[in-house]
Amino acid sequence: MAASEALAEELAETRALASHLLVTTIVPYLEGEQLYCEDKKFRRTLSSATAEDYPWREIIVPVIASSVPELIQKEVAEAGGRLVAGRTEFLEAVRGKYVEWLLPGETVYPEKLRRMVTFAELQDEAYSLVLSGSRENPSTKWPYVNLRASASANMQPMSFASLWHYLLLTGAVPSHGFAGLLMRREAVSSSSGLLQGFADGRFHLLSMWRELLLSGTPEQQRIGILHDAFVGLAEKPRLEEVAAHQLDWHALCLKDRALLSEEEQKDILDRQRRIGIYLLEHAIADGLDLQSGIWPAYQQMLTAL
């Protein structure tokens, strides 16, 4: 980084801190937490949120569950967080100029908010979303994809529509997850359906990205993808989670068929068939019961391809 750029970033950080710009950190607590995520993942993410060194922030915990254990309630209160229930109450609780989402199990580096708020404030253009770069990880496999700007540019702009088209084609989601995002409050307010991404206790990440990117005016809104990384690598998903992700992808391809050319649709179907064979072979090798859980619906989808 050139000396002039470093000085500009330092001044922007000083200005951002002096302005007391509020950031809302969202850490949802899900129904079936013990079954799918385990409370320890929620605690690890809450701990990561409290360790961030940006001083002007609030922590909101949307409750997507029938109840919350007293121990979790106590830990949220000790972290200075607030439990909220319902979409209306959730949206009203978000007060920050910027918002970050941390799903259970995700962690960020302490400097993430300070650096990304600084970057957002330094830009002439008001990006609706800013996305942390990915750590180099050659082993990253589907359903994740590494997105990262070049070191020389440090930031790559994309329209919401272009990014969604890319994610729809590949069926992948950014490996840095929602934790890698810094969102303007307006982007969250216009994407009120984000909470529906946890409808059955699982993370329907591709649906959440669609809700975020296609709400409002996707052709006009832009995301800035950074080179610098402030988020840890995504955990390797279980086979059941990959199968659920592919079911979600298939449903979204049908919903957004108009966005895809005939050739793109054929390529997607071929890719989905190959992924399906791979998953079923590994599920059988692992001794999984293909007559229970998500597997009957998954096999029915493959048969229809």
Spatial shape? globular
**Sheet/helix structural class:** alpha/beta
Order of helices and strands: HEEHHEHEHEHEEEHEEHHEHHH
- Report how far the terminal alpha carbons are from each other: 49 Å
Strand content: 5-15%
What's this, in brief?
The chain is α/β, with parallel strands linked by helices and 305 residues long. It has twelve helices and eleven strands. The strands form two sheets. Strands 1, 2, 3, 4, 5, 6, 8, 10 and 11 form a nine-stranded mixed sheet that branches.
Task: Give the topology, please.
Layout: H1 3-18, E1 23-26, E2 29-30, H2 33-36, H3 39-50, E3 57-64, H4 70-78, E4 81-84, H5 87-93, E5 98-101, H6 112-122, E6 129-131, E7 144-145, E8 155-159, H7 160-170, E9 173-174, E10 181-184, H8 185-190, H9 205-214, E11 222-226, H10 239-255, H11 262-285, H12 295-304
Task: Describe this entry's structure for a reader.
This protein is an alpha/beta fold and 305 residues long. The chain has two domains: 3-226, Spore Coat Polysaccharide Biosynthesis Protein SpsA, Chain A; 239-304. It has helices at residues 3-18, 33-36, 39-50, 70-78, 87-93, 112-122, 160-170, 185-190, 205-214, 239-255, 262-285, 295-304, and strands at residues 23-26, 29-30, 57-64, 81-84, 98-101, 129-131, 144-145, 155-159, 173-174, 181-184, 222-226. The strands form two sheets. Strands 1, 2, 3, 4, 5, 6, 8, 10 and 11 form a nine-stranded mixed beta sheet that branches. Helix 1 (3-18) packs across helix 6, helix 7 (160-170) packs antiparallel against helix 9 and helix 10 crosses helix 12.
